[in-house]
Amino acid sequence: MNFLKKNYLYIRNGLDPSAYDWEKFSRDFFSIEPALGTVRLYRDGRVERQLYQQTTPQFEGAGHKFDHSVFSDILLNGGSMVVNRFEKSSTYVADVCHQVADFCGHAVVGNAYVTQGGTGTFGKHWDAHCVFAAQLIGAKHWKIFRPTIELPLPSNNFSKKPTIGATEMVFDGVLQAGNMLYVPRGWTHEVAPIAGQPSLHIAAGVHSPKVLDYLKWVLNNKLSAHIAARETMALNHFDECHVAEASALLSREAENSQSFQEYLYALKTSISEKPYINFQTMFR
Question: Which residues contact 148 (CB under 8 A, 6 or more apart)?
Fold first, then answer.
């Protein structure tokens, strides 16, 4: 656990490479409702959804379906597909996310990436959360560079384009089916498909609470009950008295363990898991 947030980690035998295949992926993908917008295609940038998603008449209003021919054209000619929150459609991916969550102690969601050749989806970039990349099918080429910003937040997106300083490569290798790779948040990485090699990997994103997230929650959910925080700010002078009083209230509320427990409950609710109901067990 010493590597978390501090260094990348390559895990050679993280998964059983025979546990998941294209047939299982196809069945899981079939359960996705197109109207949710969780499926996105990329080729030289993001493809407009109306090009691969059709609106069809149904008995009770309009329905939606994916266009098979467009999917084939894009994915077989250098494009890629991202399925956000795929753990909500696949029990296997949900189990992978559970294992990662148990390991690191934080909520984890899984996005699926499908490619066959091309230049990749997002290019050289960093993420504002830690990622465990799990290669399920095929192979993909990964490069990891040391960070240029320490523990970034999503609001730091002005630095998402790697700077000249992000030149020290610390990992350059191919992930095969069954391999996993941990990338700390803020560490620049570049993921490239391999020509003629169909690939499916899961980016298991670790959504850990940040101090700033907690303070924002306290501001929005606790301070509004206090008149000092609801006072109108003057435009012609700095209202030092009310600001000082509100700051003291923020400190008091934030340091209250009950407030933190309420925040954790709200956080878990916001990243709620799709329930798995085992009817075989229910009706045995």
Answer: 159, 162, 163, 165, 166, 186, 188
DSSP helix/strand/coil, 244: helix
- Which of 175, 181, 179, 185 has the alpha carbon at shortest distance from 206? 185
Give the list of residues 6+ apart from residue 133 with CB closer than 8 angstroms, or none: 142, 175, 180, 181, 182, 183, 191, 201, 202, 203, 204
Q: Are residues 221 and 89 in the same domain?
A: no
Residues 30 and 55 in one domain: yes
8 Å CB contact between 113 and 81: yes
3-state helix, strand, coil in the chain (%, to 5): 35, 25, 40
Closest CA to 185 of 108, 145, 129: 129
For the stretch 27-66, what's the b/e string if a residue is b when 16 or more beta carbons lie within 10 angstroms of its beta carbon? ebbeebebeeebbbbbbeeebeeeebbeeeeeeeeeeeee
Same domain, 163 and 25: yes
For the whole model, what pTM was predicted? 0.84
* Contact between 201 and 133 (Cβ < 8 Å): yes
For 51-81, what is each residue's pLDDT tens digit? Answer: 998 877 766 656 788 999 998 999 999 999 9
How far is it, in rounded angstroms, from Cα 90 to Cα 32?
A: 10
The domain in which residue 32 lies consists of: 9-207
Could you tell me if residue 280 is inside a domain? no
Q: What is the pLDDT of residues 93-121, one digit of tens each?
A: 999 999 999 988 888 999 999 999 877 77
